Amino acid sequence: MSQNDKYPEDGAADESSAGSPIQYFAAQAKVYPRAVSGFLRQFKWAVLIICLGIYYLSPFLRWARPGDLPDQAILIDLPGRRAYFFMFEIWPQEVYIIAGILIFAAVTLFFVTSLLGRVWCGFFCFQTVWTDLYMWVERVIQGDRNARMKLDKSPLGWEKIWKKCLTHLSWLFIGVITAGAFVLYFNDAPSLIRDIFHGEVSRTVLAFIIGLTLSTYIMAGFAREQVCTYMCPYARFQSAMFDKQTLIIGYDQARGEPRGKNKGSELREHLGDCIDCSLCVQVCPTGIDIRNGLQIQCIACGLCVDACNSVMDKIGKPRDLVRYDTEENIELRAQGHRPELHLLRPRTIYYTILLATISALMLGALLMRPDLGLNVIHDRNPLFVKLSNGDIRNGYDIKIINKSYETKSFRLVSEGIEGASLAIQSANNDTIDDLSVPPDSVGHFRIFLTVDKKHAQDANFQFKIIDNKTLASSATRTIFITKIGD
Ligand code: SF4
Ligand code: SF4
User: How far is the CA of 274 from the centre of ligand 2 (A)?
Assistant: First the structure.
């Protein structure tokens, strides 16, 4: 039965409910997917193992960095305001790189969807991967589809209690390690694990672990296909990326219909290849019947393809009654024409150009990324000070960003303002010609710029820092104020 069949059309509801109030709500029927084997199922297992392996193990990868810098290859260091990804270190000012990565990922997803349909949903999405894992655990403990249905219908007894309890405990355990792995991306993994075992974990970390454990448990254990059908926005708008040449899961109506049970060769002659065994429906994780045509619930996981192929093998018919195909090819086959595959289409070409452009821009941004920066903040109060000799002085907070892994010495100059002299207020031994900034850090300096009374007027000028060793420089424009108002 398809998901859509659970909801009567308005007219049907009127008829069937004559004399009683019309019911517009139907409870969600629980789906009991059956185990299946085949090429796509094997591929899904491989994807699941690789994705989970990357997710759980990545925080333990080490990457040598100088000094006190963390040696975790992938780390989002919130207190230190840095993100580390192998050789790349992203500062808060470089959040555009993160935006670039997200845009790249989105366009890649659009590109893949326009070519291969919902393969992301069917094989790689977190919801699919974790739901698959939870279903596997459920199947190992409670048995396959029929056994699980029987168990759910059976009265409460010892077998039901221990099987259900073990399933839920296993799900919670997976939820805990999933949540634990997530927080490892924000902390030094070995230290955090040690802290967890010593009970010294912070409340924030604990709250995240509990919250993510529960969300994994609920999403993969209970919500499952309903997340894809009702919650995921991508499922709703991805049809905008489809065209008639996009791969979808299709049932070959011309070959399969009229469907009918295998009742002997004579009767079979008038029937199509579909023996109406419903195996394709039983294995479907979203509980739909793909023979009714493409439906929004279909995540293109291909399990019905494996199921039907196994049936076709058994009855000695050619495979691929249900298969990945394009809408155009399904129509061509129905008309007896040869199917064709068009990979180069306007939208795939647009997406390729867009991806190449974004990749080039991001690569350029990363390669030309300066390891030196200057921020200047003019004093707000007082805006200026008139000295006893008539000269005007303005105060500035200066931040010098040193992204390199060595201590740097800088010279500060002002450009575009006449009669100016600079002074520094420093508790260290810093001078205007020797501002020292430790590696991978920001140096804060209090600077005064004084202009003699002969040249003192409101001005727009720039501060510039020059690396005393490499002569690399960075400049920032700011203002000099001599009076309040116009
Ligand atoms: S119809 Fe087939 S491809 Fe679509 S979700 Fe169900 S099993 Fe997966
Ligand atoms: S598995 Fe194949 S033969 Fe069986 S009902 Fe589905 S389409 Fe028909």
Answer: 5
